[in-house]
Amino acid sequence: MTPVWFMRQAGRYLPEYRALRQKHSLLELCHKPELAAQVTLQPIERLGVDAAILFADILLPFEPLGLGLTFSAGEGPQITRPVREAGQVLELPPVDPATDLAYVLEAARLAARALPPHVPLIGFAGAPFTLASYAIEGGATRSFTLTKRFMYSEPRAWHQLLERLAELVGAYLAAQARAGARALQLFDSWVGCLSPADYATYVFPHSQRTLELAAASRVPVIHFGTDTAGLLADFARAGGDVIGVDWRVPLDVAWERIAPASIQGNLDPAALLAPRAELERQTREVLARAGSRPGHIFNLGHGVLPETPVEALQAVVDWVHGG
């Protein structure tokens, strides 16, 4: 049976989650381990997915780094002290995930203990490039102008920044494994904005280092990016037991490029808003391209959209499980 779980399966589409958000901010949910564990478990109880994804935010390391992190309604994350000058990189303080992100690790321990034995907990973190982009841009972006300007004009500081982030993220993922995560995922959600040459020069060695540190924890590691069709071979070569792909490349075509790694994906999250017949057609198309080969994890090409009907996700789980 093909396993299935969904990125952002713990989140705004669930009534149970929205009820908690009426009482607590996003950061409060992250900072309180009991609440974060509760949110982590909600999709298991509702959907019957095959894994739980730890509820956290990829930008939480920015707090101990002194960059400042807030979330504005309708605007997403805001970095209050973005990195805009080369000298700021050397001023970043050391971070120890075991103490500075202890609340995340406690949430992992609580969730892991509460899960049924057959349901693994998946820990996760943002990849160095995606974190660096947020840190430089000060929030979300579509153009990555500030990020690329820094990357091209301050290459030494750029590599210093990504080296710092690689060590931090690798240690953070390993700590999640020690806290009970039975798999880990590295999110490089923004890396698809780069050319293959820029990925190889400015990102590949740092992703590779992060994944090496995570792999030392001896649990499976998933390496996920969006819009990576043009650099997929190098992306897979950077590391990961499983490579996540989005809907912009057919699953079987992507699998040929990343072999022998396993593959995760790759339904378009917007398909969950389609009429039921179309959703079923696209779900079965992904399964057909996987061809029942071992090593496929059914997932979305990115996160569950807030307006997604719970019933659509439940239907996909049933189809993937053979219903």
**Oligomeric state:** single chain
Span of the ends, CA to CA: 11 Å
CATH architecture: Alpha-Beta Barrel
Number of strands: 9
Structural category is alpha/beta
Figure out the total of helices.
Answer: 14
| Rg over alpha carbons | 19 Å
Strand content: 5-15%
Q: Give the strand order, joined by hyphens, for the main sheet.
A: 1-4-5-6-7-8-9
Structure commentary:
- With 323 residues, the chain is of the alpha/beta class.
- The protein has a single domain, classed as TIM Barrel (Alpha-Beta Barrel), CATH 3.20.20.
- It is 48% helix and 12% strand.
- It has helices at 15-21, 26-31, 33-47, 86-91, 97-100, 102-114, 128-137, 145-153, 155-178, 196-215, 232-237, 251-258, 276-290, 310-320, and strands spanning 52-53, 70-72, 76-78, 121-126, 183-188, 221-225, 242-244, 262-267, 296-300.
- The protein has a 7-stranded parallel sheet.
- It is globular, with a radius of gyration of 19 Å.
Give a short synopsis of this structure:
This protein has helices spanning 15-21, 26-31, 33-47, 86-91, 97-100, 102-114, 128-137, 145-153, 155-178, 196-215, 232-237, 251-258, 276-290, 310-320; strands at residues 52-53, 70-72, 76-78, 121-126, 183-188, 221-225, 242-244, 262-267, 296-300. It is 48% helix and 12% strand. With 323 residues, it is an alpha/beta fold.
SSE order and pairing:
Blueprint: H1 15-21, H2 26-31, H3 33-47, E1 52-53, E2 70-72, E3 76-78, H4 86-91, H5 97-100, H6 102-114, E4 121-126, H7 128-137, H8 145-153, H9 155-178, E5 183-188, H10 196-215, E6 221-225, H11 232-237, E7 242-244, H12 251-258, E8 262-267, H13 276-290, E9 296-300, H14 310-320
